[in-house]
Amino acid sequence: MKHIFQKARSHKLLNNKYLNFTLKAIIVIGVVYSLYSRISKEENLDNMLDHILTFLNFPNLFYLIFALVLVPVMWWSESYRWLILVKKIVHPRSATLRQSFKAMISGHALGMFIPYRIGKIGGRLLVYESKKKVELVVVNYFDGESIKLLFDIYGLGGSAYVLYAFLDFSLVWVVILTVLVAILLLFRIYLFYNIGILLRWIKRFNIKASWLQRAEVLKRYSRAELRLIMQTTGFRVLLNFLQYYLLMCFFHIDVPFFEALLLISAIYFLIGNLPLPAIAGLFARIHVALFIWSQYTDNVISISSIPLILWIFNSLLPALVGAYVLVNTNLAKNINYDNQHI
């Protein structure tokens, strides 16, 4: 009997080894292929890189360094927001800022080649030894909705300005559209802080009771915790805007500070609300940026280089770190945790 158990254990370890290798190979190949695919589609990449190099001198270089220094601060903000959510679900030993950082950064790795937040959610699940994978998926509602809400709230005024100043919309239509979007935002904010209402409405549909029961985890969070999530997200979004403005200074694109922040918020608002696949994100940001900043300068290559640097700082860099974290994680053990602890 002991021999049988030892044989079964050896077979299981071998299967886990193969599963680990397969998953890690998929992640590495996915990240590398996504990187190659996005870079190969950018026809002016060599020109943009050469253009960036011409600005690498002091004191101009200060702006680029400052923008890069903001990256780990953003990582901390994202990790802390995720920690607030997972500490009510996972084991206390996993409810640490370090583990939340691993989850956040791993989500960036999978998000490079798996679109529409599916990759980000999947990457976060892979670093936890927990039976409550469904609950971890569910609480991503607060994470994703807080980000979307803050970008939309900040970007509403900037978008109204773009409609009026750049697209020649009449003031009446700008006011009407702004009021309608503001009402929708207020409704979303109300649901964010009163999630029970949304869950009761969902129960009217023919949804499995077990799924609805898992969704009840959203009721565990107090309004104080939800406010902290929104405050942390708001801080993170403002860092995005500041980072963009610093790169404008790096390329000598002279726009008054508050006007620049207003228009930067509009760029994020427009990109966030366009129905684009993930792979088109970088190129969409470039085209929207060209439309906005061409009102102030004809330096097309500088305008196009800003989204490229932001993509390197905020997408490529965390994806590479996340891939390293996942490659050094026992993925098979975390995936099979449910089966091991039934």
Overview of this protein structure:
The chain is mainly α and 342 residues long. The protein has one domain (2-340). The protein contains 16 helices and no strands. The protein has helices at residues 2-40, 45-53, 61-86, 97-111, 118-125, 133-138, 140-165, 171-193, 195-202, 209-215, 223-250, 257-273, 281-293, 300-327, 331-335, 337-340. Helix 11 packs across helix 14. The longest helix is centred in the first third of the chain and has 39 residues, at 2-40. It is globular and about 55 Å long.
Quick summary:
The chain is mostly helical and 342 residues long. The chain contains 16 helices and no strands.
What layout of secondary structure does this protein have?
Elements: H1 2-40, H2 45-53, H3 61-86, H4 97-111, H5 118-125, H6 133-138, H7 140-165, H8 171-193, H9 195-202, H10 209-215, H11 223-250, H12 257-273, H13 281-293, H14 300-327, H15 331-335, H16 337-340
Helix pairs in contact: 1-14, 2-14, 3-4, 3-11, 4-5, 4-14, 7-8, 7-11, 7-12, 8-9, 11-12, 11-14, 12-13, 13-14
Number of helices: 16
Q: Count up the domains.
A: 1
Question: For the CA atoms, what is the radius of gyration?
Answer: 23 Å
Biggest sheet character? none
Our estimate of the beta-strand percent is under 5%
Q: Cα distance, first to last residue?
A: 22 Å
What is the N-to-C order of secondary-structure elements (H for helix, E for strand)?
A: HHHHHHHHHHHHHHHH
SS-based class = mainly alpha
Taken from the alpha-carbon principal axes, the silhouette is globular
Low-confidence stretches: 1-14
Strands, count: 0
Report the mean per-residue pLDDT as an integer. 85
- Fraction of residues in H or I helices: over 70%
